[in-house]
Amino acid sequence: MLTLLKSWVRPDAFHTVLSERSVRWYNACLRITRDADLAADAVQEALLKAWDHRDEFRGEAALDTWIHRIALNAAIDLTRRRKRRAEEELDPESVEAGPASSAESEYVGQAFGKDLTTAMQRLTAKERQIFLLKHVEGWRLDEIAESMQSPIGSVKNALFRAVHKLRVDLQVWRGES
Amino acid sequence: MITDDELLLYYYRDGLDAAERVRIGAALSEQPELARRLHALVARLDAAAAQPEVPVPEHTMQRWRHALEQATESRAAPVRRPRFTQLRWQAAAAAVLVVALAVALQVMRPESSKTAINVPPPIKQAAGGEDASAYENGLKVHLASTERQLAGLGDASPEDRARLIETIIGQNRMYALAAERAREPQLARVLRAFNPILEDLADGRSDASAADIAQLSFELRVMQARLSAGATPPNML
What we know:
The complex is a heterodimer.
Chain A: H1 2-8, H2 11-33, H3 36-52, H4 63-88, H5 92-96, H6 103-112, H7 114-121, H8 125-136, H9 141-148, H10 152-174
Helix pairs in contact in A: 2-3, 2-4, 3-4, 7-10, 8-10, 9-10
Chain B: H1 4-12, H2 18-30, H3 32-49, H4 58-74, H5 86-107, H6 111-116, H7 130-152, H8 158-181, H9 185-193, H10 195-203, H11 210-230
Helix pairs in contact in B: 1-3, 2-3, 5-7, 5-9, 5-10, 5-11, 7-8, 8-9, 8-10
């Protein structure tokens, strides 16, 4: 059975899943990084990492799901590295900056919708990532803590803060009391 | 009183212990208002998370395809670096032969000169008249062991190979020191001569040069000539 699974994970399987599911990976990474270039890098890194470790793929999840998860981890890691680099260069604007101001990122910002983007922009990078990983991606809190290299209590608190901010902003946006 | 945070963790089925889950589940089934609060909260969060998907730019998709093609072409079959090139085997074989011949020189010497050697035995800490035989016996064991280890290196993992070669090198150094004390500078020099090649093998470097091997071969021929002039070939390994 394992042999069959391994033989299935061939180049054509990767190309097929790339054609069919890369939009989903890209958008998931885009939400995490808010940067088109970093999102593209994360997906590419995930593809290559998955290919390199294809013998470890046990077929417990779909190939698409497996690569999706690797891509998200890569996106978190790339964002963290960018932040660290910016901090090392003592450039506060880079640390606080959201997406890079490339044409693609501007396009992404427009496509996301101004109001929702505003609501999400009120979150810190950590709050936004944790909220997305929990609410959209369905990761467990301990998985998020591991990936973000944060204590689980800190992850929980960041999630609660994110939810509170989003709830307040969306109430205002919808004209609710 | 159940907070929104608790409601949310209940919805996520995460971060609550069993007792808390039971308590909140019971409250939700008994209090329709609480259930409506949870549904409203989740709907708001869904709205916040519901961002429209953007298409992947064509050049990005092409970049991924290209990267994947390159990876699948270059890594389709697990790349196994040849553990031992022919050159390296020659170097290893030469090293063993050098040691064997050096030992032969030692063994074939007249009995009187052997007993005159006052070398601390590297393996067995013998003393006095036992020194020379302990030295020779230790060297024999080392050579036999070296030969076996080198023969098995092809199947060893890189880590095992490095460890084995490191051990051989260490023993060579010890015997070279003993040879110096025994006033056998040629043996000491030969023993040390192939250490760099063994180190290259241990490091997995492929630049054990032909010149190195040629030099060792020359040493071999010199020693062979010396052997054939003074003794019959040994049959000790």
